[in-house]
Amino acid sequence: MTDSHALVADLFRHESGRLIALLTRRVGAKRLDIVEDAVQDALLAAMRSWPLRGVPQNQQAWLYTAARNALYDRLRHARFELPAEFAAEPSQQADGVFSGEDALQDDLLNLIVYCCHPSLSHAAQLTLTLRLACGLGVNEIAGALLMAPDSIAQRIVRAKRELRDLQVDFVLPPVRELVEQRLPPILQTIYLLFDAGYLSANHELWVRPALCEDALRLSRILSAHPATAQHATYALAALLHLSAARLPARVGADGWPVPLARQDRSKWDQRLIAAGFRYLEAAIGGDTLTRYHIEAAIAAEHARADSVETTDWVGILRHYDQLCGLYPSPVASLNRIIALRHARGAAEALTEFTATEGLRSMDDSLIYHATLGELYGALGEQEKAADAFHAAANLAASTTLADLFRGRERSARGE
Amino acid sequence: MSEFVVLLHEDPAVITRLGLSPAEMQAVVAKYSAWFGKLGATGKLEVSKKLMDEGGRHLRGKRGAVVVSDGPFAEAKDVIAGLFIVQAASYDDARALLNDCPHFDYGGWIELRQIDRMGK
Fold first, then answer.
1. Is the ipTM of this complex over 0.95?
2. Is the entire prediction scored with pTM above 0.90?
């Protein structure tokens, strides 16, 4: 047997994004579909070849050469004009263009800027980023976003057509435009990417931790890139690192999600917490206070505390007041209620819960009923608590979560 | 012990239709490589080769001359992607080695041929 090297983790997914970015820059955005096919060719070639010949030592260079040659063949076959650097016969070796880390980050940034074009809806931006930059298949995106694969496929086709019709090119806009107009939707997409991975709706799926990893990775790349290293970017990176630090404690040995109050804080990733605090420090000083700043400050309060009891809930409530004032949303209001419960007690929290009009729009969500159940439970109204947990269980997107809330319903009913 | 050639057949269109995602393709590589590693560790695997995808050449004798034509690939429904040789006592024994071969995972099929050693 040929000697075989260890496969680099997430190699195919990450190289898919990197190669699409690199090759599209060279042949232009109007050839994006052909580039995607060529990259798919390269990955298929590796899939069929590596088991028999052994996994090569330089896996990235192998895939690059295969993708470049496939693109050359496809462009020639379609009788498209070949860019100068493609005019020569394809090489067996990776040529000089094979990029170092800096060029890689430029290319990836280019691709993300393209995917998050302001003419697309947030949903389309996220879907296209998942597809092109994160290298996810249609079914995997559908699983992560809890949508039907057909709708995802349609959304991708439409988004690509829209960008093609607008003749959006594959170049970085001038720094000013990049920072003022293009960065906000990019940060929003990375935030949603992390959210899709973090929300505990579908623990069974490998995609979820991978999405969190990708969001962290992208936030680091943007924080390191001179064009996008802005206060808002640091604030987002801080928020994601501090939140990701809690991931190891979020799933119990039984596979069930563990609420913050019962998490074993010794499992929190101290390396990520330290990185989060460094980003948070870098985020201070700008003249804008983004929602990422406020949410990172909240995550930092949790990271600082040894337990729920010693957490500065009054401080957290202040942050939530600010968040609800500047960036009002039902989710922010609901989280504020939870902070209020810890800061001033369940009775006051329940009163505000019922008095907050905006929350009603969330009564089709699990977290709405779970919070209500908690509050009733804390106030000794077991029957109402049980009904709320029952509603939460019916809204759970995974059997794991449904079981969790059915268990809480039973204990509230004294069974 | 006899030797068996394992010919790995594929239908390129079937693989394309599967629409595997990058992660799924990497999972195939990981699983298939581990499977080969295990087979290699038994000492029963002699050689494994991937063949070029361009379809090769077909050579035919015609009135004393050899005529060369390109083998089909793109339009072919069945191509041999690669081969390996294993040692086994019988067809049944060889089949048992191949039962869980990941080649089947992406629509491939396997042709098993015993190497003829009659008279040796």
1. no
2. no
